[in-house]
Structures are given as C-alpha cells and as structure tokens.
Specification:
Radius of gyration: 31 Å
CATH superfamily of the largest domain: Spore Coat Polysaccharide Biosynthesis Protein SpsA, Chain A
Mean pLDDT: 97
Helix content: 10-25%
Bound molecules: uridine-diphosphate-N-acetylglucosamine, magnesium ion
CATH class of the largest domain: Alpha Beta
Structural class: alpha/beta
Shape: elongated
Largest sheet: 21 strands, parallel
Number of helices: 8
Distance between the termini: 100 Å
Number of strands: 35
Strand content: 25-35%
C-alpha cells in the first residue's frame, strides 16, 4: 500500500466560538480537538502529517509541538482548496493524501481505513443527513455515479433536496491532487477556492470517484460553536459509557460520567454518579468509585473502595484500600494494600505501607510510612521550612497520637508510640513512648471573669 500523507485543515477562525483561542484548540473529552485528529493520523501510521494553520498565529503549532508534524501557514484563508494547496509542496508524489479537519474531532481510524479500501482514484467520505442544510451535496447520475459536489450556496433548489452530503474528508493520489488543485478557480458565490471542485475534474478525466460512509454519524460532526462542542462532548461521553458498560462496568448513571482520557476497568467495577477520569486511569477488579470523585493518571488495584468526593492524582493505590470520603491523594502517593485514608486526609509524594491507616484530618507529605502504622487524627508532617522540603520516616507498627506535628527531617522508629499533641523534632526510638507536651496543671479556686456592670 502507498505511503499516506495526512493534511489537517486547522486555519479557520471559529468566529462563532467567541473566543481568543483558535477553534481547533478547544477541548473535547479533555483534549484539544486538533489533537484528537492528530492522534487518529498517528494511529493510521501516516508517513507525513501536515497541519495547515492560520488564525491564532503560532499558538496552534506551539500547542502541538510534541507531534512529529509539519505546520504550514495559510494566510490569507481563501477556501478549503487553497488550504490544501499550502500543504502540497511538502508532500511527495507516489503517495496518497488524505484531508482531515481540525474541527471534526471524532473521526475514527476504522472509517478512514474503509476509505483506503474503497478503491483507486478519488475517495470521498459522505453521510446522509435528514437535514442537509449548509453542506455540499453529492450529485450523482441516474446510475449512481458521482458527478460533482455542489456547495449549498451554488446549488439549485432541486440539488438542495439531496440528502447525501460531503463531510469534507477525502483521499486521493497525491500527484493527481496536486494537478487538480493547481486548476481550481474561485468563480463561485463565495469567491473561494473550493476543494470540492476537484470531483468534477476527476470525473472529466475519467478518474474513478468512490464514496465511503462513516460507521457513526458523530464521527463527521464539525464544531462551530460552544453549543455544538458541548453536544458532541455528551455524544462522546455516552459512547464511552456504553463501551464501559459493554465490558461489564456498572455505571450508576451513564449520563453522569466524564472520561477525559483512557479509562480501563477490570471486572465488577462500580462507578457512582458525577465521577471524572482524566489521563490514563486503571481500575482493577471490584473497585468501587463513590460519587463525584476525580481520578487522574492513577492505578487502583483490586477491591479498593473509594468513597465519595475523593481526588486522586498521579498516584498508585494497592488492593483492598479504603479511601475517602473527601480524601486527596496528590502526585507521587503510593498506598500499599489494605491502607486506609479517610476524610480530609491529604497525602503527597509519600508511601503508605500495607495496612496502615490515616483516617481523619491529616497531612502526610514527603513521607515514608511503614506497615500497620496508625496515624491519629490531625497529625501533620511539617515537611517544608519555607525554603526546603524534608522527609519524614515512620517505621512499621508505629502509633502516632492525635494532633501530632512531625517536624521533618525526622524518624519515628519501629513500634514507637507518640503521645497525642506532641511536636516531634528529634528521632523517636523504636518501641518507646515519646511525647512532647507541657504538664497539665489545675489552678484551684480560679474564677471565670464576670461582665463589669456600667
Ligand atoms: C465544507 C465543504 C462542504 C462540506 C462541509 C462539511 C468546501 C468548499 N465545502 O464547507 O462541501 O459539506 O465543509 O463541513 O470544501 N478552512 C481552512 N482554510 C480556508 C477555509 C477553510 O483551513 O481557507 C478549514 C476550516 O477551518 C474548516 C474547514 O476547512 O475546518 C471547512 O471550512 P468551512 O469554511 O467550514 O467549509 P464549509 O463551507 O462548511
Ligand atoms: Mg463548515
């Protein structure tokens, strides 16, 4: 099969977004629209990806700098044919070229592969719409052979009744595309160079014109406004929800989940309403996620229960842990199996050993906590002196009394006990009780002040 170039048109202004940001950088499912298209192009193993940009200047190439793509500016924007022309000097002959759109984010690899299998010559992706208003119409002869694409503004009333429309996505041999584009004229109602005019040229030259249809209509929906963006977002989320349920995941409400990345789930996973998953998240067998939890770039091992309103970011959670409600695991947290992290507990860049518990109102930062440790309510690691951060080490079987401050760097030994209310600034030895607390006194006969009469 010939090498494939992919040209992504992303020069449009997006007037109806009412935004300073170029349209193709607005996010769908947590990712800029043009990035969805770039990822699809990568999945197709295109040998060459060319992004045509314009409005918003260098913002688009800067935002997509991580991609091995060529960025070609189109200035001014004189139509879709003119946009594709800008890419042509970068594309070798003896290849195929495919045109995609930065504002048609959900095009799927399987549909594009079907286009490649549709036949030699020019291949267009078309779709039948109950309401074709605004789109270019596919004009066919009595035998069904494609003759041309006619834009709505140039169409006769009879042609406007055609329900098969052009999605804009096409595939053509690069050399042919190059020659057709060089012959485009802008003598139409919009004074633009229409990419669609190449169809009539191909027909006149006797080049075969094929059409393919997307597997789902949402794949070819373009975005022009925030309202369309929100609608397509919900469509995509419902596709994700259906995918999860088809794999056996229990969703309390498939309309109330947001997957902004890749969520993979084991068997018998349950997800309550309002949860957001960002980046790469893996939930192993029997994990339960409580309502309104936000989980980003995390791996949760089997049987772990995450109660409502928990936030987990860039963390690893072992099996059979209990988290939340209202727990926060910040980047670099690692919980070993059977750990408990309860309400209003914040963990950052710390390891919590097997079976250890911090159940209430704590901050554990830059710490290494061993196994079977009990961290009492209100315990704080003072890891930061205003300039540098230091580590706290708590060894196996230690018991930290409530409301303790551990001033790092500090070590609490194996099996050590810390008395409640202590401020620990020096290492506490193994197996002993350490506390720092002023002695309790009672002042006999002390009287509360009384209000002075005026
Ligand atoms: C185009 C098609 C129409 C099709 C419709 C599908 C043409 C002439 N018409 O019409 O047949 O039904 O898309 O949505 O191709 N763009 C540039 N540079 C330009 C002009 C456009 O990069 O100079 C980009 C836009 O940002 C947009 C895409 O090309 O992403 C389509 O342009 P748009 O003006 O929306 O074309 P339509 O009139 O909708
Ligand atoms: Mg359009």
């Amino acid at each position: 099969m010939s090498a494939l170039n992919i040209i992504i048109l992303a020069a449009g202004k997006g007037t109806r977004m009412y935004s300073n940001k170029p349209k193709v950088l607005h996010a769908l499912a947590g990712k800029p629209m043009v990035q969805h298209v770039l990822d699809c192009a990568l999945a197709l193993e295109a040998s060459n990806i060319c992004v045509v940009y314009g409005h918003g200047g260098e913002i688009v190439p800067q935002a997509m700098a991580q991609y091995q793509a060529q960025f070609v500016i189109q200035e001014p924007q004189l139509g879709t044919g003119h946009a594709v022309q800008q890419a042509m000097p970068h594309l070798p002959d003896n290849t195929l070229s495919m045109v995609l759109y930065g504002d048609v984010p959900l095009i799927q690899q399987t549909t594009l592969q079907q286009m490649r299998a549709a036949g030699e010559g020019l291949v267009f992706l078309t779709v039948n719409l109950a309401n074709p208003t605004g789109y270019g119409r596919i004009v066919r002869d009595a035998s069904g052979k494609v003759l041309s694409i006619i834009e709505e503004k140039d169409a006769t009333p009879e042609q406007r009744k055609i329900q098969e429309v052009n999605t804009g996505i096409l595939l053509a041999p690069t050399a042919m595309l190059r020659s057709w584009l060089s012959n485009l004229k802008n003598n139409n109602s919009q004074g633009e160079y229409y990419l669609t005019d190449i169809v009539a040229m191909a027909v006149a030259q006797g080049v075969a014109v094929h059409t393919a249809q997307p597997a789902h209509a949402w794949e070819v929906e373009g975005i022009n406004s925030k309202s369309q963006l929100a609608t397509l977002e919900r469509t995509w989320q419902s596709v994700e929800a259906q995918r999860l349920m088809s794999q056996g995941v229990t969703l309390a409400d498939p309309a109330r989940i947001d997957v902004r990345g890749q969520l993979s789930c084991g068997r018998d996973v349950e997800i309550d309403v309002g949860c957001i998953f960002e980046g790469k998240v893996e939930l192993a067998d029997n994990v339960r996620v409580g309502a309104y939890s936000v989980i980003r770039n995390a791996t949760i091992a089997q049987g772990t229960q995450i109660a409502a309103y928990s936030h987990i970011d860039s963390s690893l959670v072992g099996a059979n842990c209990h988290i939340g409600p209202y727990a926060r695991l910040r980047p670099g947290s690692q919980l070993h199996d059977d750990a408990h992290v309860g309400n209003f507990v914040e963990i950052k860049n710390s390891e919590i050993g097997k079976g250890s518990k911090a159940n209430h109102l704590s901050y554990i930062g830059d710490s290494t906590v061993g196994s079977r440790v009990n961290i009492g309510a209100g315990t704080i690691t003072c890891n930061y002196d205003g300039a540098n951060k230091f580590r706290t080490i708590i060894e196996d079987d230690a018991f930290i009394g409530s409301d303790t401050q551990l001033v790092a760097p500090v070590r609490v030994g194996k099996g050590a006990t810390i008395g409640a209310g202590s401020t620990i600034t020096k290492d506490a030895p193994d197996g002993e009780l350490t506390l720092s607390r002023s002695k309790q006194i009672t002042i006999n006969g002390w009287k509360r002040p009384v209000k002075i009469k005026k």
